[in-house]
Design goal:
Layout (H helix, E strand, L loop, with lengths): L22 E4 L13 E4 L7 E3 L16 H14 L15 H11 L13 H23 L1
The structure holds zinc ion.
Length: 146
């Protein structure tokens, strides 16, 4: 039986800050105080304080995005906070887009037809997302107040 030996080998992502290959570590390496297991993470071996989680069911530990340092992690949170209400039904201020529709709309405003994903954005792009989505939010709340 010819099974590819590559199928189970993780492709190591690189740290975008220092260029070193990331190391696979359990969540306890990142959250030593947590009682919960958050799965595996790709972690910069250097001083960047950069990491990213893995897809839960990925045997190859596919990363959820690019490695993010503290500054980018904060911006990604802000971007999600601004963007998720467009499509997430349980988010405050839900606007009724489908997930795909929301990402398409975002992509078109960011000048790309490729699918956009906050997990793969840098600080600049996250800032754009916040600006775009807050503009949309203000627009729709002034619609309803009249
Ligand atoms: Zn690094």
């Amino acid at each position: 039986m010819n099974r590819g030996i590559l199928t189970l080998r993780a492709k190591k992502p690189k740290c975008p800050y220092c260029g070193e290959k990331a190391e696979l570590k359990p969540s306890s390496a990142i959250y030593p105080a947590a009682n919960q297991d958050y799965g595996m993470f790709w972690v910069c071996p250097g001083e960047c304080d950069a990491y990213v989680g893995c897809h839960v069911n990925s045997r190859r530990h596919a990363p959820l995005g690019r490695l993010a340092n503290a500054e980018l992690r904060q911006w990604k949170q802000l971007a999600h906070k601004a963007f998720d209400p467009l499509w997430k039904e349980d988010a405050e201020g839900y606007m009724g887009f489908s997930r795909q529709g929301a990402y398409q709309w975002l992509g078109s405003l960011m000048g790309t037809t490729k699918s956009v994903h906050i997990g793969f954005m840098d600080v600049n792009e996250c800032q754009q997302v916040v600006e775009i989505c807050e503009g949309k939010l203000n627009e729709s709340s002034s619609d309803t107040s009249n």
